[in-house]
Design goal:
Layout (H helix, E strand, L loop, with lengths): L11 E2 L10 H36 L2 H16 L3 E11 L3 H8 L8 H4 L4 E6 L11 E10 L4 E11 L19 E9 L2 E12 L6 E7 L4 E2 L2 H18 L4 E10 L1
Antiparallel strand pairs: 1-10, 2-8, 2-9, 2-10, 3-4, 4-5, 5-6, 6-7, 7-8
Helix pairs in contact: 1-2, 1-5
């Protein structure tokens, strides 16, 4: 499971990857590469703790080694910072089609989560892919790890808070001036995992759609998420490009 955003202190601008319309193979490949690198980073952190333990045991004795390993493990898990940020996306598809995608159980900005989940289950609410006034949906992303010995789940809820009246039936359909505001909230148990506000509007020339996404600083992260976030940063634009979205302005910052 990855973070709700990647930790970068500076702005990223300009298209980082060519945009293609809904390339499912490219999306699966990008998510798979991200997942493999993220796992490698997680194992590297675990090996770092184990290496510190063995080094202290070799240099001093067993119990000081245990103490050092325990301190490192705890330090890596203490929530110490929050993330906030924004990203602007552009796509050639209609505003109504974009609203339906972001209101569905698989919002484009959460591809790293639903793309690696063992199962995505719709659990209620309106059908976010409906062609007439989508209002949002609820879903659960289920994950297993440690060879299936442990599991976790992300509860997702999307909600179209402003009126959106799409007229096109499919991606690429024609639209008028459609503007919608959505909220996307995800939780693990009783703890909020990530919260986003998404604004969708037609471009001035009428040839596409602008999507502004704001990450709200609702959750504290521990130090383990810094390295995982760097991995997500590497594949973020590529994953969105495979879904037909161009990243041309992005800022993410860390706060306490």
């Amino acid at each position: 499971m990855s973070d709700s955003s990647s930790p970068s202190d500076s702005a990223g601008s300009g298209a980082e990857s060519p945009v293609v319309p809904d390339d499912h193979e490219a999306l699966a490949a990008a998510v798979d590469r991200y997942h493999r690198v993220e796992l490698a980073v997680s194992w590297a952190l675990a090996l770092l703790v184990a290496g510190a333990f063995l080094a202290v045991v070799a240099a001093v004795s067993f119990w000081p080694g245990v103490a050092v390993a325990a301190v490192l493990a705890i330090a890596l898990r203490v929530p110490i910072y929050r993330r906030r940020g924004s990203v602007r996306l552009r796509t050639e598809v209609s505003p109504g089609a974009v609203v339906r995608e972001f209101a569905s159980s698989r919002p484009p900005i959460l591809a790293f989560q639903w793309g690696v989940a063992d199962e995505v289950r719709d659990t209620g609410g309106e059908d976010g892919t409906a062609t007439d006034r989508p209002t949002g949906t609820r879903a659960i992303y289920e994950f297993s790890y440690l060879l299936g010995l442990r599991s976790a789940a992300i509860d997702l809820e999307t909600d179209v808070r402003a009126d959106a009246t799409p007229t096109g039936d499919e991606r690429g359909g024609s639209e008028g001036d459609t503007v919608a505001t959505l909220s996307i909230d995800a939780a693990i148990g009783d703890s909020l995992w990530g919260s986003y506000t998404v604004t969708v509007q037609e471009t001035d020339d009428g040839d596409g759609t602008i999507v502004d996404v704001e990450l709200l600083p609702t959750r504290r992260f521990d130090l383990r998420r810094l390295s995982q976030g760097r991995v997500a940063e590497r594949y973020y634009a590529e994953t969105l490009a495979a879904q037909g979205y161009e990243v041309f302005d992005r800022t993410v910052s860390l706060t306490r």
